[in-house]
Amino acid sequence: MATDEIGMILDVTPGDYEGFERKLLEGTGHRVEVCHGPEERGGKCPMLEGETCNLIEEAHGVVFKLDLERETHRRILENYKRVLPAGAPLAVAVEPGQEEGYAHLLEDVHVWSHQPTSSDLDGFAALVEAADYTRE
Q1: What is the pLDDT of residue 97?
Q2: Sign of CA dihedral 40, 43, 44, 49
Q3: Which one of 3.30.70.270, 3.40.50.620, 1.20.910.10, 3.40.50.2300 gives the CATH number of domain 8-134?
Q4: Sequence ranges of the domains in the chain
Q5: Beta strands of 5-117 (E only): which ranges?
Q6: Gap between the Cα atoms of 90 and 5, Å rounded
Q7: Global pTM value
Q8: CB 30 within 8 A of CB 6
Q9: Sequence-distant (≥ 6) Cβ neighbours of residue 78 within 8 angstroms
Q10: Average pLDDT for residues 56-62, to the nearest whole number?
Q11: What is the pLDDT of residues 95-127, one digit of tens each?
């Protein structure tokens, strides 16, 4: 990848959530695609069907904010961890307390137990850029 190209970030957030992540991440120069999870697709998600997901294949990093109390959301996160290229940052915003209850699932993941702030997201964008520069 040329160093003047900045990768796409996949923002996975609930359908009823219209946060500032997309706007802020786009402000750092990244293209951002949003997926509202399987509920947006009538319960279907290619990641749950054993299929490839075009969005995840293009993603240079993923910001994930779904409910880990839901089995389907945990399965999607497990699949992200499995298929994301080595070094591609994955950040998960969880409800307070979920970071302990799902510690095994959150290994090797950047975890926020609060609503991500602009500083959190700026730091995440920097991780994506750093991964892009080191990617073969």
Answers
A1: 92
A2: positive
A3: 3.40.50.2300
A4: 8-134
A5: 8-12, 32-35, 59-64, 90-93, 110-112
A6: 19
A7: 0.83
A8: yes
A9: 105
A10: 88
A11: 999 999 999 999 989 999 998 888 998 999 999
Task: Let me know: does 91 contact 114? Beta carbons within 8 Å.
Answer: no
Nearest CA to 90 out of 74, 67, 71, 108 is that of: 108
Tokens of 16: 């009823």
132's CB contacts (< 8 A; 6+ apart) are 1, 3, 5, 6, 7, 60
- The token duo for 97 is 């307390």
What are 55's two structure tokens?
């969005």
Backbone angle region of 37, left / alpha / beta, with phi > 0 → left and psi within -120 to 50 → alpha = left
